[in-house]
Amino acid sequence: MVPLHLENFKNNLHFTVVNALREFRVFILEKIRPEKTEIKKLIEKLETLPNVQAARAIRNKNDDSRKIVFEILANVNPSERIDLLTEATNLAVETEWKMDTLTKSRNWNLEVQVVRKFREDKKSQIIIFNNDRTKYLSPAS
Fold first, then answer.
1. Is 57 exposed, middle or buried (0-12, 13-18, 19+ CB in 10 A)?
2. pLDDT digit string (tens) for 64-79?
3. How far, in Å, CA of 128 to CA of 73, rounded?
4. Based on the number of CB atoms within 10 Å of its own CB, is 46 exposed (0-12), middle (13-18) or buried (19 or more)?
5. How far apart are CA 8 and CA 56, in angstroms?
6. Dist CA 116 CA 119 (whole Å)
7. 125 neighbors 60 (Cβ within 8 angstroms)
8. Quick one: which of 51, 41, 32, 30 has its CA closest to 110?
């Protein structure tokens, strides 16, 4: 019999079958597709940068699947935009190196763009990861 160490459970959630399956799914996804986990981590890091409202990862349907554009939604002045873009690019380069190592491939191309509004070209793009909460937020009345 294998002992369960619930104190090591990632979240402070109650142990249920649904939570156990969710954690197992995340574990399997990290082992099978480590690049998806790295993309998600980069999105979360980008969203912690100052003045960032949301971020998402996009891949074009017709292009190489290893070219990913990260769009950062932010309304900033030009000098803040340069600083934000520099910081975001540094994070993207670190993630690109990590993905190269994990997948044993040097073909990853991660780009970063700071935008005032997300583009909506649904015919030629695939949104890989979208953590955009701005469309669900409304001003308090």
1. buried
2. 677 888 999 998 999 9
3. 16
4. buried
5. 31
6. 9
7. yes
8. 41
